[in-house]
């Protein structure tokens, strides 16, 4: 099977009402208010409570040739980089590839184990994508991991080929919402797969 | 199989960004701006273009013992009932049961063929539900068909047992959005079924 390469993919978990994070994100609660007791991340229960059932989707999430994420997904530090922070994912992050972190606050690249290097991009979404594409050698996929603030900018700019949504059984009512402020999109449903705690839907973005 | 009866069900088609209708609803375009050329209803393409594939979901939509809908779903007449309008569904509507239409403008009941009678309720959502439950003889299901403005009120009031969503492959970007203003809900995914132009997801509302 020949896999089409060089795509720009967004991959994100959302609540049934479209939120990728609740209000009041913090180091203790990176996903903000999730209607729970604050000890867990109910959006991602499908990943952590039922990993066997969702192995394909979890693997796919981390198999791009380069990644893009927003600074709030990268961590809880806001404003100047005034304390050490190298991401939520430990010394050997699951990306094994360059990760371009959008921010307004310049910072030197941070090399981690296993092939992951965090690059901090202050020149905006087009620059981050150009750098990710170059790192992906032109023919590997680039995956934009979130948050919604970042993905919405790429969707609005018409730069996304494929959208992988994992729709979790809860609503958040407030927070950062996927598609908020994004002009109407024509989509093609490519795959849709139910699992016990989630529905996985992949759309191709037509226009 | 014993079917649990007497449930309150919402059944509605939404875009991937949660809208049940676009902006600028009119008699010519009951679903408002849908990003198309105005000739069709792209949200409901799954019903009209692929009926065989979705027979179960279409049948389920119209099998309650009583129905509730908002006045905007019922038709394009706004304000006073100053011209004849008996719904979008012709002389023999597919409901075959009483339909309670929420409105601020009183009107006499309108009997149609095949067992459908439209009752116009001006006393609010609790009254409409009590009347629908009484009509359903206490043990038949009541289905709330939309629009989002109506369903959101029932969700906010904690009056819904089950939510059947048909998620269509497009985004609208604006309009009436399901869950808008509704406090966070815990849901249980009961079923999830892909078809070629839609993903059908049924949630039980836990709280
Ligand atoms: N549900 C999921 O699958 C999922 C996935 C990812 C993240 N999340 C959650 O979502 C939340 C983070 O998402 P978010 O939407 O709040 O934020 P985000 O997209 O992760 O990050 C937004 C921040 O990135 C920087 N940024 C974004 N675009 C930029 C641009 N064009 N130029 C320069 N800097 C730019 C800005 O930071 P500065 O101006 O401060 O530098 C901005 O405040 C976290 O709670 C995270 O846990 C959830
Ligand atoms: N995607 C779908 O499956 C689906 C399903 C249904 C409808 N739709 C579309 O959605 C649109 C209509 O939805 P909508 O959200 O705009 O409106 P809606 O819920 O159908 O109707 C709202 C109207 O109903 C009356 N109403 C609602 N709650 C009331 C209350 N508590 N007390 C008294 N009156 C009340 C008010 O009318 P007055 O004050 O004017 O009397 C209100 O403006 C239409 O475009 C329709 O085609 C789509």
UniProtKB/TrEMBL annotation, chains A, B:
Record-annotated membrane-spanning stretches: none
Annotated source species: Streptomyces lomondensis
Residue ranges of domain Bacterial bifunctional deaminase-reductase C-terminal in the record: 8-193
Gene3D superfamilies: Dihydrofolate Reductase, subunit A
Source organism superkingdom: Bacteria
Name under which the protein is recorded: Riboflavin biosynthesis protein RibD
SUPFAM superfamilies (UniProt xref): Dihydrofolate reductase-like
Signal peptide: none
């Amino acid at each position: 099977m020949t896999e089409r390469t060089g795509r720009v993919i967004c991959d994100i978990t959302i609540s049934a009402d479209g939120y990728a994070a609740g209000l009041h994100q913090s180091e203790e609660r990176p996903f903000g208010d999730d209607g729970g007791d604050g000890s867990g991340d109910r959006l991602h229960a499908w990943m952590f409570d039922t990993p066997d059932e969702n192995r394909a989707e979890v693997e796919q999430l981390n198999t791009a040739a380069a990644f893009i994420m927003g600074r709030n997904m990268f961590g809880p530090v806001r404003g100047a980089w005034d304390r050490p922070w190298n991401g939520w994912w430990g010394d050997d992050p699951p990306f094994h590839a360059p990760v371009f972190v959008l921010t307004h606050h310049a910072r030197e690249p941070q090399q981690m184990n296993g092939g992951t290097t965090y690059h901090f991009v202050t020149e905006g979404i087009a620059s981050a994508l150009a750098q990710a594409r170059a790192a992906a050698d032109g023919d590997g996929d680039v995956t934009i991991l979130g948050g919604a603030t970042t993905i919405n900018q790429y969707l609005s700019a018409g730069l996304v080929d494929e959208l992988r949504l994992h729709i979790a059984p809860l609503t958040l009512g407030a927070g950062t919402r996927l598609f908020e402020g994004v002009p109407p999109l024509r989509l093609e449903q490519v795959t849709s797969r139910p699992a016990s705690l989630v529905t996985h839907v992949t759309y191709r973005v037509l226009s």
